[in-house]
């Protein structure tokens, strides 16, 4: 705890502490846009893009703020499996099972897909087919964070949509289960270039949204996971009376619909829902980061934004790679009927085939 406070305030008492502060500072740099992405990508082709998305999502969240969590998670699943290429949006087809159908879709909200397709229609009506479904998914996640009370930030755009499904195996291999411990999570995410700081910050996405009992029943049955607070356990057993129920519960009991740092306060009180959450506080490698975020929301927001920008650039398709889908849930067909003006140039046409 003392060490944690020293690190958080960066008192230059010891060389080692100074060093760790410097490392923190370098980790805090906003990641540079990946080649082919930029902060001004749609400046001429769709200047209204960001305001259309934000206005529409504000309306959606006014009637159901829970959809914000669904959209944030959708972007995470898209990016972790085969890169942020919108493949998570594809409906199953003869070409193979889509990510949506693989078991660890971990109950993505069906409505999230409808919201993205509605955004696509609105944006394409205003700007023609210039904006990809993967960019819309990234923007929706960004706005889900801000409109739930989180930081307002810009993200690089210019992603293109993939034309191939992610296999069931790739989906299973790339999304760690909630039963994973910190060792497993750190190892898994380090293969994608994430540091322990990134991992703890990204896990803060669990400050909004819900989970099904089945995602944490091993911590309730047959007996209480000793790392879980007794009162928290007693309440969860009321919501999840057996190991086979469809019930859901909020992930952050302190402020379930607000994007804030209370998730980390939950962890410090042994009220984290999943093993993958709670073990971040048990494990000595990540415990100090959890504490730092619990006491400093500004720090959490800064690190979360950086980690999200990093996540949002995993294996992106750019330039003439991939395509811009006319329907987010399916790949453009070869002999697609193209409305006049929908294709602006030959490159675009070639890239869509
Ligand atoms: C580190 C590994 C992660 C694991 C093991 C994990 C696991 C899970 C699980 C099991 C659920 C509940 C599914 C259900 O029972 O319905 C969930 C929900 C959620 N996750 Fe994660 N997750 C991880 C990382 C992330 C990241 C990086 C984000 C975003 C930054 C995120 C955002 C969310 C959100 C917002 C929900 C709530 C969804 C809703 O209410 O519909 N998760 N996660
Ligand atoms: C996720 O998978 C479950 C069963 O594995 C299925 O019932 C659900 O409809 C799927 N969700 C989506 C959005 O496809
Ligand atoms: C959010 O940030 C954008 C630019 O980064 C700015 O134009 C906008 O005014 C900000 N919105 C709010 C509500 O702070
Ligand atoms: C998928 O993974 C399972 C188990 O790991 C393996 O038996 C199977 O051959 C894999 N399938 C493909 C298509 O790679
Ligand atoms: C973490 O989980 C892995 C895989 O289940 C296991 O081999 C390892 O012993 C666990 N580590 C700790 C510290 O519990
Ligand atoms: C679902 O949870 C509620 C309390 O939140 C509980 O009363 C109910 O029995 C649970 N239903 C099932 C089927 O487990
Ligand atoms: C639920 O518990 C019963 C009895 O303990 C066990 O036989 C069963 O395999 C469990 N089911 C799941 C899905 O964990
Ligand atoms: C919280 O973190 C921010 C960002 O690193 C830092 O500027 C600020 O000084 C910290 N606040 C406290 C009270 O340590
Ligand atoms: C988009 O594609 C899906 C799946 O192929 C289809 O069900 C839906 O009707 C299509 N939407 C539009 C507007 O064409
Ligand atoms: C969209 O395409 C139509 C038909 O070619 C064209 O008239 C219109 O100017 C285009 N709109 C924009 C915003 O580029």
Automatic annotation (TrEMBL):
Ca(2+) 1 binds at residues 78, 81, 83, 85, 87, 99. Binds 1 heme b (iron(II)-protoporphyrin IX) group per subunit. One of its GO terms (molecular function) is metal ion binding. Heme b binds at residue 206. Keywords: Calcium, Disulfide bond, Glycoprotein, Heme, Hydrogen peroxide, Iron, Metal-binding, Oxidoreductase, Peroxidase, Secreted, Signal. Disulfide bonds join 46-127, 79-84, 133-328, 213-240. Ca(2+) 2 binds at residues 207, 252, 260. Its EC number is 1.11.1.7. Its main location: secreted. Its cofactor is heme b; Ca(2+). The active site is at residue 77. GO terms for cellular component: extracellular region; plant-type cell wall. Substrate binds at residue 176. It catalyses: 2 a phenolic donor + H2O2 = 2 a phenolic radical donor + 2 H2O. It is an enzyme of class 1 (oxidoreductase). InterPro entries: Haem_peroxidase (IPR002016), Haem_peroxidase_sf (IPR010255), Peroxidase_pln (IPR000823), Peroxidases_AS (IPR019794), Peroxidases_heam-ligand_BS (IPR019793), Secretory_peroxidase (IPR033905). The record marks 73 as: Transition state stabilizer. One of its GO terms (biological process) is response to stress. It is found in: Secreted. PANTHER family: PEROXIDASE 16-RELATED, PTHR31517. Belongs to the peroxidase family. Ascorbate peroxidase subfamily. Removal of H(2)O(2), oxidation of toxic reductants, biosynthesis and degradation of lignin, suberization, auxin catabolism, response to environmental stresses such as wounding, pathogen attack and oxidative stress. These functions might be dependent on each isozyme/isoform in each plant tissue. This is Peroxidase.
